[in-house]
Task: structure prediction
Amino acid sequence: MYDTVKLEKGMYHLTGRSFSEALEQADPSAQYAGTELAGLDAFERQLKRFDIHVAGENCDRVEKFFSTTESAVLFPEFVRRAVRRGMEESILPELTAAVSALNGTVAKGFSVTETDGAYNTVTAEGVSLKKTVITETADTVALNKYGRLIAASYETVRSQRIDVFTVMLRAVGRKLANAIAGKAITALLAAATSVTQAGASVTYADLTALYAEFTDYDMTTVIASPANVAKILALTEMRDRTLGADGSVRLPFGAKLLKDSSIGDTKILGISKGFALECITGSEVLLETDQLIDCQLDRIAVSVRAGFQPLMSGTAAVLQPAG
Result:
């Protein structure tokens, strides 16, 4: 049962298993089906075991994690989850069709070549079928390291409410993901076809021209700088703009409008999210777990490795001024 699991530092250093996976193996969630603990994962059951409230009216302070030597073992996983949550709340998940995990720092590249578009698929008797050819290339995808350093002593952190500290950690995750998203956008721009903007300032006709660049795929997402997003929102055609179920702004033809400062003010990027880009991760969010458990919080280093591989052609286009 969850209240008899022995928690120790070594659970963070098991080969091929994360701390959460080690907890889940020791305390499988399946055995709680139909009980009041159903719906909680193994980590959340440990929070309940040590009566650590991470949100709500009775939210504890960070020092509650360090009430015992065993409960202190939970703190690095709490930090990792909060940072990961912030990453998931960023623009990064909006840019990738798939996320792959890899043990290493370099991934092999590949290319996809199609002999025709989606509207030329009829094959006469005796004629070879149209081809989609996937080949490995000599190019490689580098998994770069991205990180941020949190400078805060234990004495500063210990008295913070856990929910407030969670907000701070989510902000770190968001900053980290925004840096990674900049690299993703660079990869998409490199693979994008170009559409020339008609004048000095973006018009609705420019956006529809960008939309028309997509033939085999739908343009689901438009990414622009904050300045260009403001210009788009000021267009007459956007007065009756629609909102997605998640509250996101949608262009009249359905594409989600997102802002990111890394793209600059001279480019507006359109993508088909479900087909454009693969994110390859070389690690989960990494922390110096032993130091966190021992209350050595002066410097919390958070890092992750990631690289990007463009996927299908015709899934990214960029609108930019002439010249």
